[in-house]
Amino acid sequence: MKWLVIIDKYTPEVVGGHSIYVERFIKELIKLGNEVTLLTTTNKKEYFKYEKFDNLEIYKIYIKKGSVGPLRFNSRNLLTQKVLLLLDNNNFDVVNTHTACLFNCNW
User: Fold this and answer.
1) What is the DSSP code (8-state) at residue 45?
2) pTM of the entire structure?
3) Distance between CA 95 and CA 90 in Å, rounded?
């Protein structure tokens, strides 16, 4: 199966319960033979924007720090645009959102 997993922050930038859960979840999906595409954000320009391993693709979208006002709406728009692009170019069996409140859910 092909999975699209979406989380607002991911390791190594943020290490906490939510990101550790998603990291372990993805590892188990891959062990079971699934293909996983992870979409997340970063506030640090030095972090990679795209990485590919055997059954894992990671996309990180750079957003400026801030969680209210124009910055929040801009990050929501960037994430929504990337989700729409990924959905257009892939046949995902499952879309698993861990932070749906960040997105414009018109897809």
Assistant:
1) T
2) 0.78
3) 11
DSSP state of 37: E
Q: For residues 36 and 15, what is the distance between their CA atoms, to the nearest angstrom?
A: 20
In total, the chain counts a number of residues equal to 107
Q: Among 9, 5, 59, which Cα is nearest to 27's?
A: 5
3-state secondary structure of 9: coil
Give the DSSP H or E segment for 73: helix 69-89
Instruction: Note the pLDDT tens digit of each residue in 25-65.
Output: 999 999 999 999 999 888 777 777 888 988 999 998 887 76
Cβ atoms 75, 63 nearer than 8 A: yes
Rounded Cα–Cα distance for residues 83 and 12 (Å): 22
* Amino acid letter for position 48: F
- What gap in Å lies between CA 47 and CA 94, rounded to an integer? 27
No. of helices (H) and no. of strands (E), the chain: 2, 5
